[in-house]
Design a protein that fits this description.
The structure is a single chain. The strands form 2 sheets. A 4-stranded antiparallel sheet has the order 3-4-5-6, with helices on one face. Strand 3 and strand 4 form a beta hairpin. The chain is globular. The chain has a single domain, classed as Roll (Nuclear Transport Factor 2, Chain: A), CATH 3.10.450. By secondary structure, the protein is α+β, with helices and mostly antiparallel strands. It is 19% helix and 25% strand.
Length: 145
């Protein structure tokens, strides 16, 4: 799926609950107005593992493969490469428009900062998404930006 300026999707929470529109009471839509659709898709891919989706066997970052690994520079580089591959392999995001930074926060945890120049109808700045990732239990926690 390639995100375009007119792309839309149903908006949902990180728990999979749908949002309702304040104005109409109908299902809310995620669009490119303020990067909502891009953020929603990126988060779902990073939280998913291969084979989570029956018809999309390679969908997802498959970060579970890093459970138990030591938090080294080499592991960090592998995590970065995995994230970039997950978000670019099918043209979702152009590789030249994504930047991934990892900062160790403990012996088994890292801070992941994604900066993505995604299509938007109004946003003039890149979208930034920040997570912490725990290599002990594969816990990915979205941080408020």
């Amino acid at each position: 799926m390639k995100i375009k300026k007119n792309s839309t999707d149903i908006m949902y929470s990180s728990n999979g609950d749908f949002f309702l529109s304040d104005k109409t009471g109908d299902l809310a839509r995620a669009n490119t107005h303020d990067h909502k659709i891009t953020k929603q898709i990126v988060i779902k891919r990073l939280e998913s593992s291969h084979a989570d989706w029956k018809h999309l066997r390679t969908y997802g970052a498959n970060l579970t493969s890093f459970i138990g690994k030591r938090n080294t520079m080499a592991t960090g580089e592998m995590i970065k490469a995995t994230i970039v591959r997950c978000l670019t392999y099918d043209g979702l995001i152009n590789p030249s428009k994504i930047q991934v930074e990892l900062l160790p926060t403990g012996a088994r945890s890292v801070l992941i900062v994604l900066q993505i120049n995604a299509p938007s109808t109004v946003a003039k700045t890149p979208m930034v998404i920040t997570f912490t990732y725990d290599l002990r239990n594969n816990k990915l926690v979205l941080r408020r930006n």
